[in-house]
Design goal:
With 130 residues, the chain is mostly helical. The chain has a single domain, classed as Globin-like. Helices cover 72% and strands 0% of the residues. The chain contains 6 helices and no strands. Helix 1 packs across helix 3 and helix 5 packs antiparallel against helix 6. The N and C termini lie far apart (45 Å). The structure holds protoporphyrin IX containing FE.
């Protein structure tokens, strides 16, 4: 497949859709989305398009709290470093399959950084003695 720059809403949609195709089929984290959170995809996907469009194309469309649903989810299943590791691996694989260029690199940088913060927050909640 030919890689392209991330330059439009359509590119963002391709990124998000391809990423969640991998997530849903994944043996380590798929069940969290499918069976525990039972994600309402038609509701969730447009939120994720807005999120990544804001981060990568500066459109300011996302004005929600990205951490909050993860704290709620973590009450149902403790999110582990291995889960976050796989999440990032699938994200990076999606980017390198489809995209190239500065925005593609920015997407990976942003994903790594938010993943790092989120993973650390959950580790602290889940291991209060740490
Ligand atoms: C193992 C890791 C992760 C799991 C299992 C996970 C799972 C979920 C679930 C179940 C939702 C709620 C979907 C719904 O509304 O029903 C969600 C929302 C979201 N996730 Fe994650 N997530 C993970 C990591 C991340 C990371 C690292 C990021 C940052 C790039 C991220 C960004 C978001 C955003 C922006 C939302 C939407 C929040 C909103 O409602 O505004 N997630 N995630």
């Amino acid at each position: 497949m030919e890689q392209k720059e991330i330059a439009s809403r359509e590119d963002i949609e391709l990124l998000v859709n391809s990423f969640y195709d991998k997530v849903k089929a994944d043996d380590l984290i798929g069940f969290i989305f499918n069976d525990i959170a039972k994600v309402d995809w038609p509701h969730h996907l447009p939120i994720m398009y807005d999120f990544w469009e804001s981060l990568l194309l500066d459109t300011g469309k996302y004005g929600r709290n990205a951490m909050e649903p993860h704290f709620e989810l973590n009450k149902k299943i403790q999110l582990q470093p291995a889960h976050f590791g796989r999440w990032l691996q699938l994200f990076e694989a999606t980017i390198s399959e489809h995209f190239t260029g500065e925005k593609a690199e920015l997407a990976v940088t942003r994903a790594r950084s938010i993943k790092g913060i989120m993973s650390l927050k959950m580790e602290k909640i889940n291991n209060p003695e740490m």
